[in-house]
Each structure stands twice: as structure tokens, then as C-alpha cells.
Fold this protein.
Amino acid sequence: MGDGSLLVLWNSKTGNPIQSIVQPHKFGTVAMDLSPDDEWLVTVGAADPESGEQEVRKELTHTSHGRSKSIEGASGGEASTG
């Protein structure tokens, strides 16, 4: 949480880090999941103390043939698991 927060994805076979995401959410990360093909990482941020809103972030991982980009979105109120 805060300026020093860091989320690291690791290769489970080699033990090497494959991607780092600096400060994924302003108020900390409360949940995350990988897609079954390991191509997408979705994280849910902790609720903003003032508004109660939670940020949802969808990130294309480096595991998908070297491509990397992020797609971010925000949801008001509670995040849905859809």
C-alpha cells in the first residue's frame, strides 16, 4: 500500500520474476486472479475511504508471448466478480 507497493508475477517453473506492477492501486490491493490461460491479471483495489469506490484493473501479462499492455477501469461502489 502506498508509494512503495509492488505486485510481482513469478514464473512458477523457473522461479524468476516475469512482470512487476508498481503501485497497482492507491489504497492497496484486496483481490486478484489470473485468467485460465495466464494471459490476463485482474486486480481489485481497496475501497477509497471517502467515496467507497473500488478500482478494477485488467492487465495483459508478459506471459502471453511477450506482449504487455494494461487496460484499466474503475467501478463505483463494490467491485463485482461477474
Remarks:
- Residues 64-72, 74-82 have pLDDT under 50 and may be disordered.
